[in-house]
């Protein structure tokens, strides 16, 4: 079968104007056996992947060595379906049609995947930059691998194989809602919801009590996978959060917003939406998730993961999205769309504690992964990696120098588009430097991050620190420190500990001065994280 398929592919390419035989990128080949891939329903077909490893050539004549089997596939996306270069959602399956967990292109095993084809983003880097930055910031973001795609012998261009956002140990690491915990809890989590427009298969949704143009939807589990009590719980949780943040005591540490949200995740979400001046930011493709009470010891609402940044960083020409000035959270003052931005993003900035913490987080990132030199280094290295494939991509899709909905800038060369991206991020960052409110002081001898269940002190540190930790079950504990690039720079195994309250003295950390992220790991799962400053 493999030989027959190879002959078919080679004959097809010899009849095409564009001949494609090998690549430095992995090659994904899909054969539909005469069927047409549609938006709905999915079709069953075959996918093979050739991946000989980084730095090695991949040839069409090579054996399928990464995946060789059955998939179900459909066209995905909302407004992106207008483009001739389609995106696809797919599921890997065994021969009987059951979900098949596989490690596609070096990513952790799963069965739900997305083939995203960059089109209006002619750099083909905006989503990769966003996901990479999120991971450097200590957040989960979809892992990805660039590849070149063939469908039925036709070259389709450069794509990104992406992890679909879902609940999973290696994706959004929250508990399974259907699995009881120690308290027989199948109600309080975990949920992934999103603020989004009503397109595609939505199922049940509900609107904010304060703006009926803010629409919430269940993402995972989907609405038909949960019962009415579970659906009501999550809807009421968000309603209670909005009520608290709209009230006169919204800044109260026990009654206000801090009771409901993971504050640092909201900082990071805000920073992404504003840095990208994301035209759909806050009001579309905006994910939130909540874990089960007692599972991760943080059952507050977490903002993220990041998604859909192809029209960000100056790549949209409407509603001031191409400007490097102004705040995106004021979008509703500029444009009147059918979807609106939740009021809480603006209201949170009225809290001195919140705005000061946000300022600290921004300054910290600007001295780390958002330093201009590091941003440009990533963009240049990715452009270099994609050079061979993107030349073929733009022979297939000759759009360089042409306006594509909704480009905010149209370069006459790929390099001009790339330089625009780098310049936009630099200028936008400088504007935020000069206009973000709040005041940051990291000189106090107090924890930057305090919760009911852990504390570190002093902070800043010189070479030693103390950790206080409450455990609700027996577990093996590790303490790690990572730098702002995501590299692990310190680790100490704290042993197998019983449930209860513990205190640890951690010595000889021996790090250069700067800001770092600490992680407290229980049985290979993250319990807590926060910032630690080394003097």
Give an account of the 3D structure:
- With 535 residues, the chain is of the alpha+beta class.
- It contains nine helices and 21 strands.
- The protein folds into four domains: 162 residues, no CATH class; 164 residues, no CATH class; 64 residues, no CATH class; 81 residues, Immunoglobulin-like.
- The strands form five sheets. Strands 2-3-5-6-7-9-8 form a seven-stranded mixed barrel.
- A hairpin with a 7-residue loop joins strand 15 and strand 16.
- It is globular, with a radius of gyration of 24 Å.
- The N and C termini lie far apart (63 Å).
- The N terminus is likely disordered.
Q: How many distinct folded domains?
A: 4
Order of helices and strands: HEEEEEEEHEEEEEHHEEHHHHHEEEEEEE
Q: Which range does the strand content fall in?
A: 25-35%
Distance between the termini: 63 Å
**What general form does the structure show?**
globular
Summing up helix and strand content along with how strands pair, one would put the structural category as: alpha+beta
Q: Describe the sheet with the most strands.
A: 7 strands, mixed, barrel
Q: What is the total tally of β strands?
A: 21
Task: Tell me the helix content.
Answer: 10-25%
Tally of DSSP helical segments: 9
Order of strands side by side in the largest beta sheet?
2-3-5-6-7-9-8
Quote the average pLDDT: 90
- Poorly predicted sequence stretches spanning 5 or more consecutive residues: 3-17, 443-452
Using only CA atoms, what is the Rg? 24 Å
């Amino acid at each position: 079968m493999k030989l027959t398929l190879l002959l078919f592919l080679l004959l097809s390419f010899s009849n095409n104007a564009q001949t494609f035989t090998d690549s430095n990128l992995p090659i994904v080949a899909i054969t539909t056996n005469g069927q047409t891939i549609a938006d709905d329903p999915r079709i069953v077909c075959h996918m093979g992947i050739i991946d000989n490893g980084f730095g090695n050539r991949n040839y069409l004549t090579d054996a399928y060595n990464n995946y060789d089997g059955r998939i179900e596939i459909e066209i995905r996306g909302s407004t992106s379906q207008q483009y001739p270069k389609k995106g696809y959602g797919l599921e890997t399956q065994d021969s009987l049609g059951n979900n098949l967990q596989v490690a596609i292109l070096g990513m952790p095993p799963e069965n739900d995947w997305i083939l995203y084809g960059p089109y209006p983003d002619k750099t083909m880097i905006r989503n990769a930059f966003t996901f990479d930055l999120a991971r450097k910031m200590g957040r989960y973001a979809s892992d990805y691998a660039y590849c070149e795609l063939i469908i039925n012998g036709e070259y389709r261009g450069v794509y990104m194989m992406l992890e679909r956002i879902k609940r999973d140990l290696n994706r959004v690491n929250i508990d399974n809602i259907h699995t009881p915990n120690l308290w027989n809890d199948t109600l309080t989590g975990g949920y992934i919801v999103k603020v989004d427009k009503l397109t595609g298969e939505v199922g049940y949704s509900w609107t904010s009590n304060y703006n009926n143009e803010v629409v919430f939807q269940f993402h995972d589990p989907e609405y038909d996978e949960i019962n009415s009590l579970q659906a009501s719980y999550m809807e009421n949780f968000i309603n209670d959060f909005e009520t608290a943040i709209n009230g006169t005591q919204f800044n109260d540490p026990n009654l206000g917003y801090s009771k409901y949200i993971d504050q640092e995740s909201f900082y990071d979400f805000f920073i992404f939406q504003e840095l990208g001046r994301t035209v759909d930011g806050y009001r579309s493709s905006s994910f939130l998730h909540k874990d089960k009470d007692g599972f991760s010891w943080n059952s507050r609402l977490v903002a993220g993961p990041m998604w859909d940044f192809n029209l960000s960083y100056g790549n949209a020409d409407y509603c001031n999205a191409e400007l490097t000035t102004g705040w995106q959270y004021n979008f509703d003052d500029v444009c009147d769309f059918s979807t609106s931005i939740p009021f809480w993003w603006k209201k949170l900035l009225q809290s001195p504690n919140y705005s000061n913490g946000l300022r600290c987080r921004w300054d910290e990132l600007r001295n780390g992964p958002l330093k201009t030199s590091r941003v440009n280094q990533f963009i240049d290295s990715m452009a270099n990696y994609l050079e061979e494939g993107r030349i073929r991509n733009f022979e297939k899709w000759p759009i360089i120098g042409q306006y594509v909905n909704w480009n905010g800038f149209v370069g006459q060369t790929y390099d001009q588009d790339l330089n625009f991206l780098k310049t936009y991020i630099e200028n936008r960052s400088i504007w935020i430097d000069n206009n973000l409110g709040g005041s940051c002081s990291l000189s106090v001898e107090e924890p930057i991050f305090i919760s009911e269940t852990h504390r570190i002190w002093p902070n800043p540190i010189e070479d030693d620190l103390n950790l206080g930790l409450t455990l609700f079950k027996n577990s093996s504990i590790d303490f790690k420190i990572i730098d702002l690039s995501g590299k692990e720079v310190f680790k100490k195994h704290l042993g197998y500990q019983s449930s209860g309250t513990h205190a640890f003295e951690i010595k000889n950390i021996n790090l250069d001065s700067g800001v770092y992220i600490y992680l407290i790991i229980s049985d290979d799962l993250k319990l807590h994280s926060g910032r630690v400053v080394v003097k």
